[in-house]
């Protein structure tokens, strides 16, 4: 075995959690939890990565409360589903793989028809996701709504630890609830929760403190952030350094610097072919199809893929934090993994690379010069709306559909 595979496949630990290698399955919303309840298909989906040798898999977008779902079919951390969620986590763990849960709240961005009233975010206005479905507007959160959100994270964290999750990943990025507070584009509040970055960080830091209190000091908590929203007036790379410093000081164990937002600029997150054709393929709502045809080319331009496309920006974070760093974004080969780890990262999260090659760690062990077969066509992104759940239409084994 060459040095590159030795490094990516070497043991590591994260706040006491032993991980058999440095490769982690990134959260990729699975769409395999009808009505918020995990299905056998969700277990099978994650088991394929566990069997393939990944150290830890991340269950994507675990809504911390009913109102935190983007749609009604998102996994919800609720006592009513304790036995199903416990089974999900325990079944995957049987394959020598740790399980993290990505804690999410959609805030003002929702098409969840089971929601009572309008979705709520830092500032009211148009509900971009629900607009085409008749959920036109979102409301401004009151101070008691803010307290409620903190409690929802606290309760969800307690619940998630009790059902056996090994680690929690708080989603601070991609335009969802906590990111809406961080972003000056979506947070136009005039109180202590809006304005300066210090104020915009207030709710996200309260959430981190509440989650930490719920799980204890010796339980790993990761933070996924957006480095830049890629929009004038939005979060920029320099802001992300300040955000990382604040999370580090507040006791985060690891930071995953991602990019872009699902709401405004998703192509910054997964560079490659435009996701427009695949979104059109699965979108059933006629108004949404019309809007996609009208604005899709501008919203979802093809952004040429290149390996490790976030590395240059993400590397700057190493100099400002003491916590562990998890690289994400276009890591596709043994050579890439080596370069990333040598640049000061402790772990690597893999999204599309694993969708295309679920047994990547095994392949890497056998062949250190392994290269992923993912073509960055981004067809998998549209499968977020597929009745079969997300998958790589190019290479997926039909047995997991
Ligand atoms: C189909 C699909 C679904 C995704 N869902 C999520 C999600 O639920 N939460 C999240 O933080 N990121 C999500 N992402 C983004 C990935 O976690 C990752 O940041 C991105 O794909 C870049 O990494 P990669 O180049 O290894 O794919 C998704 C990506 C894809 C392709
Ligand atoms: S559909 Fe498959 S090949 Fe295309 S980007 Fe997704 S994982 Fe890669």
Automatic annotation (TrEMBL):
Residues spanning the membrane:
none
Q: Which keywords, in A-to-Z order, does the entry hold?
A: Flavoprotein, Oxidoreductase
GO molecular function terms noted in the UniProt entry = FMN binding; oxidoreductase activity
Q: Which domain of life is it from?
A: Bacteria
Keyword check for Flavoprotein? yes
Record-linked Pfam families:
Oxidored_FMN
Q: What sequence ranges are listed for the domain NADH:flavin oxidoreductase/NADH oxidase N-terminal?
A: 17-256
Write down the SUPFAM superfamilies for this protein, in alphabetical order.
FMN-linked oxidoreductases
| Protein's name in the database | 2,4-dienoyl-CoA reductase-like NADH-dependent reductase (Old Yellow Enzyme family)
From which organism does this entry originate?
Answer: Zhongshania antarctica
Q: What is the lineage of its organism?
A: Bacteria, Pseudomonadati, Pseudomonadota, Gammaproteobacteria, Cellvibrionales
């Amino acid at each position: 075995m060459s040095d590159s595979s030795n490094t990516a496949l070497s043991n590591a630990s994260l706040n006491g959690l032993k991980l058999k290698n440095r490769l982690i399955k990134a959260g990729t919303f699975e769409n395999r939890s009808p009505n918020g309840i995990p299905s056998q298909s969700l277990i099978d989906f994650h088991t394929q990565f566990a069997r393939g040798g990944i150290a830890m898999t991340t269950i994507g977008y675990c809504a911390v409360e009913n109102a935190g779902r983007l749609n009604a079919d998102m996994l919800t951390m609720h006592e009513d589903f304790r036995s199903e969620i416990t089974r999900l986590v325990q079944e995957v763990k049987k394959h020598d793989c740790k399980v993290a849960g990505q804690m999410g709240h959609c805030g003002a961005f929702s098409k969840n028809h089971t929601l009572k009233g309008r979705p709520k975010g830092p500032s009211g206005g148009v509900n971009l996701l629900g607009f085409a479905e008749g959920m036109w507007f979102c409301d401004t959160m009151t101070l008691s709504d803010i307290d409620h959100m903190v409690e929802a994270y606290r309760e969800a964290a307690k619940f998630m630890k009790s059902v056996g999750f090994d680690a929690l990943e708080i989603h601070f990025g991609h335009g969802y609830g906590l990111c809406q507070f961080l972003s000056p584009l979506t947070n136009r509040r005039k109180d202590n929760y809006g304005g300066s970055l210090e104020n915009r960080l207030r709710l996200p830091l309260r959430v981190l403190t509440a989650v930490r209190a719920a799980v204890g000091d010796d339980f790993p908590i990761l933070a996924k952030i957006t480095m830049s929203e890629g929009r004038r007036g939005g979060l920029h790379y320099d802001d992300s350094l300040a955000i990382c410093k604040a999370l580090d000081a507040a006791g985060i164990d690891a930071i995953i610097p991602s990019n872009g937002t699902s709401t405004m600029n998703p192509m910054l997150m997964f560079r490659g072919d435009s996701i427009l054709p695949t979104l059109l393929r699965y979108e059933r709502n006629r108004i949404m199809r019309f809007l996609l045809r009208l604005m899709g080319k501008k919203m979802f331009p093809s952004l040429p893929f290149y390996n490790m496309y976030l590395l240059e920006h993400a590397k700057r974070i190493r100099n400002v934090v003491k916590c562990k760093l998890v690289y994400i974004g276009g890591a596709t080969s043994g050579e890439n993994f080596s370069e990333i780890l040598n640049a000061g990262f402790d772990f690597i999260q893999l999204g599309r690379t694993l969708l295309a090659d679920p047994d990547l760690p095994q392949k890497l062990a056998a062949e250190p010069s392994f290269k992923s077969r993912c073509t960055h066509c981004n067809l998998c992104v549209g499968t977020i709306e597929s009745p079969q759940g997300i998958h790589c239409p190019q290479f997926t084994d039909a047995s997991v559909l």
